[in-house]
Amino acid sequence: MMELGTLGAFALVSLGMVCSPGPNMIYLISRT
Length: 32
Fold this sequence. Notes:
It comes from Peribacillus frigoritolerans. This is LysE family translocator. The chain is mainly α. Helices cover 84% and strands 0% of the residues. The chain is elongated. The N and C termini lie far apart (34 Å). The mean pLDDT is 80.
């Protein structure tokens, strides 16, 4: 069973990626 803190952090990161796909995609592409 996952800890609540870990699950919350994962949910927060996932939500951030969904809410701002533009900047994140640009960053990932520039890193490759």
